[in-house]
Amino acid sequence: MLTDDEVRLEVKRFIGEAWDPDLTLGQWWERLADSGWAVPTWPAEWLGKGLPGAAARVVAEELRAGNVPGPPAGLGLLLAGPTILTHGTEAHKARYLRPIVAGQEAWCQLFSEPGAGSDLASLQTKAVRDGDEWIVNGQKVWTSGAQTADFGMLLARTDPDQPKHKGISYFAFPMDQPGVEVRPLKEMTGRSLFCEVFFTDARVADSECINGLGGGWIAANTTLTAERAGLGAGGSGASGGGFPGRKGEMLGLLVGPMMDGARSAAARSSRAERSGALMRRVVKELGRDQEPVLRQHLAQAYVLDEIGRMMSLRAKQLRTAGTPMPGDGNLSKLLMSRVERHGRDLGPELIGPWAMVLGDDTPGGGNFQEATVWAPAPSIYGGSDEVQKNIVGERVLGLPKEPGPDKHTPFRDLAVGTQQA
Fold first, then answer.
1. In this predicted model, what pLDDT tens digit does every residue of 163-187 receive, in sequence order?
2. 3-state secondary structure 348-366
3. What does CATH list as the number for 265-383?
4. Of the residues 61, 208, 227, 370, which is catalytic?
5. Are 108 and 153 in contact (CB under 8 A)?
6. How far is CA 283 from CA 81, 274, 291, 421, in A?
7. Superfamily of domain 107-226
8. Would you call 227 a catalytic residue per the annotation?
9. Do residues 143 and 194 touch, judged by C-beta distance below 8 A?
């Protein structure tokens, strides 16, 4: 097993041999994928190095220090890849993992529905077998990046006669086909990160069922665990990554100018700062750093940031030792929601009347205003705060689950299922 120092030397050696500023981002990602340093914790036979979780942090630090792009951003590498690696067949791994790691294909998460968000297992999008294919009808919502995705992680009900958790299957679903309509949703921030997706007799091959027919809930929990851990940890920290897939329109960018631009932007833009550091800088610029109440709130922001950093370090250490802490992803996501809410409340207090004005020329470069309207989202997406607390209570603390008919009653007989039957 490589030590941290050996990992650093190997990554530096790879950068020295592989880096060429005239490469396109797609070509660089190909080299990074082949090297094993894009996903160092994955098995060596599947594009990784078989290293412990702590090695990913070391690799990210060296990629950032070398001012080269990190692995692709997006849900393919964060969610689809780990799920396929865990539950996919050898054919699934051979088909999907390399395009994910090399940034050739982008993914979205087709989980939540208008009537099945926090209670995801109540989903009503249905798939009906037609020979070697399944015909899909229904609706998903809050689907991040659906407008640029090549594939979706689709949860669909394949057997309404089973209890709601057991009649669900998980498909690698092709997005570019008749019968799939993607509608971006306009957010309060002015952006459209989320979409709603409609299926009308869309199709997916039976061979693309991950974890077998009816095994969707187990596979989905692997996806959700990866999502919560990734959200709580705040990403890899590698520099200058980009969005995968041809629709992201980044594969053809030259990496040299791209990284020069990223470095210049980081040097001149407050957006490169973490929220706590940005708050401390702005409060000094406004001459309010001696106000006792603001100092107390800033101290609380610093404490929350440090707690998050220490939780992440502890979780990585325990995973490396083979004794992961139950519920660490759920607790990390709960902390992230709390940090966002604290920033929502403190930011406008710091800048006063400027909080009512949108624009980059306001104190903090518009970050505080955007954080205010964005703050409700983290307590909802990836599983609401209430869901995270239920999971910790039931699966970690051993508290009893709320009684109900869900575990044994066929889905079509539940109240929520009568609309589908």
1. 999 999 999 999 999 999 999 998 8
2. HHHHHHHHHCCCCCCCCCC
3. 1.20.140
4. 227
5. yes
6. 42, 14, 10, 58
7. Butyryl-CoA Dehydrogenase, subunit A, domain 2 (2.40.110.10)
8. yes
9. yes
